[in-house]
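Q: My labmate handed me this sequence with no annotations at all. I'd like to see what the chain might look like in three dimensions before we decide whether it's worth expressing. Could you predict it?
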Amino acid sequence: MDKSKQFNFITYGSKISSLQIEEVLHHLMVKLIDETEERVTPFCIWGMHGIGKSDVVREYAQKAGYEFIYIAPAQFEEMGDLTGMPKIEVGSDGQSVTRLIPPQWVPKTNGPGIFLIDDVNRADDRILRGIMQLLQNYELVSWKLPAKWAIVLTANPDGGDYSVTTMDDAMITRMIHVTMEFDVKAWAKWAEQAHVDPRGIDFVLTYPEIVSGNRTTPRSLVQFFKSIATISDLKQRLDIVKIFADGCLDTETTIAFINFINMDLDKLVAPEEILHAGEFKIIEGRIAALVNGKTKRMDILSVIMTRLTNHVLFAKNEVDAKSFENLKRFILLDFIPNDLRLAMAQELVSSNKKELKKLYTIPEIGKLILTKM
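A: Here is what I predict for the chain of 373 residues:
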């Protein structure tokens, strides 16, 4: 059952996808780097467990070349874990004095960098009070965050079954808030770049509604897909596949994945097969057989189109002449509805890949795009 229907979850800010999270982070970091005299307001990302909040921040920092430091205050037992531990030193006047030694993880370089406070509201109230001072002043008793570091936090929803500490208004108003929600197309783009098992990507694109359970989350799905990645024929090993699925996912998701395999949907036509086909007619026949059954399977066609689009956009190499010809022939397949054809063409031509701009020169595609502009 969808947890959101069982509890009155409390989150803050606009509900946005992981791709929009990256856009906000980019905006904040550009402001931070360009305006070194002014701190950026701490940025808090709310969302359900396993949706990938921390991963989005970490991967953005890596791609952008920023330094990155992570802490999980739920693991802190004493204020000293946050502020630093005391040490007695002898001053120049010969008198003993107690000083706090900053924790090892405190950023020491100028940055630019992102300081991630993960699952902030899983910390107890004492630790939260210390973090509030950090949000307000960018410093604690024994240490100060360097100028070009941004504070980013993640939090689980309040008002449900999460073991969280409610943050008061004084803390809430010291941050900019958004709520990250699962977006299947954004996830599929990430999964393509992260080299998630293609059969897993096809499954999630086919049944996006399954990513809403207690145990079934984007994180647990990826764990499951990794565990079966070395099994070439899933139907032949349904016993071991079910064991791994039961170990990671809700029962309903396990049943859906077994049905997915039994219907041979784990054998959808791959993007590489389409682009590198020597005889495109053979590929066309395979796709038509999948789509044009007793009932039109627009869901399967949409999965194939999404996978192909993401593969083309994120491939390191340019699209060569043969692949471009096959891509063109795919887009022009007569059983693709114009709305799907248009969406795919628009996404391809709006990318940074110059060779894809040639799609404008194809009369049927160029006319379709221009009439919808």
